[in-house]
Amino acid sequence: MQDDEDWRAKSPDASRIGTAVEYLVAATCILASRGELNVSTALVDDEGVDLVFHRRGASATLAVQVKARTTDTKVVRGGRFHAQVRGQTFRPRPDYYLLFVVADVATAMFEMVWLVPSVDYVNLARHAPDGTLRMSASLSASTDDRWRPCRLGRAELPGRLLELLPTD
């Protein structure tokens, strides 16, 4: 993954790593929920939806955009997670969440995530002059930053998704 000073610059491998993290999250959630969660992906991602979660036997869905950063990036090594969402295509709604994931390249796992409702992201994110909505969260366990209420460990994520998905 990139090690640029400018965290917004995308390396040629960013898309490949992002897709791998999406599948890692999907597989983890299916396994940890003992198959209660199911996950779909889109052939075309032009609406900012990477994963669609649903509870087995129910019709409600939760659309999720995944933003991943790896532990070998300079910003993450410095104790922060930075991400941005393009304001031009971002459409908040109750069934749409953003999932920010720190992926550990040494273990091919993730431990920390922020699951942010899109309707809250609009208010929590910094609105940049270029129209992007930016988040910058501390990786410190003792942080009390604005993103702390959305922070989950890997083991907590499947349960939280199930809480958000009603049974029919």
Note the topology.
Elements: H1 14-32, E1 37-40, E2 51-55, E3 61-70, H2 74-77, E4 80-86, E5 96-104, E6 109-117, H3 118-124, E7 126-127, E8 132-138, E9 151-153, H4 157-164
Parallel strand pairs: 3-5
Antiparallel strand pairs: 1-2, 2-3, 4-8, 5-6, 6-9, 7-8
Provide a descriptive summary of the structure in words:
This protein has 168 residues and is α+β, with helices and mostly antiparallel strands. It has one domain: Trna Endonuclease, Chain: A, domain 1, CATH 3.40.1350. It has four helices and nine strands, in the order αβββαβββαβββα. The strands form two sheets. The chain has a six-stranded mixed sheet with strand order 1-2-3-5-6-9. Strands 4-8-7 form a three-stranded antiparallel sheet. The longest helix has 19 residues, at 14-32. The relative contact order is 0.19.
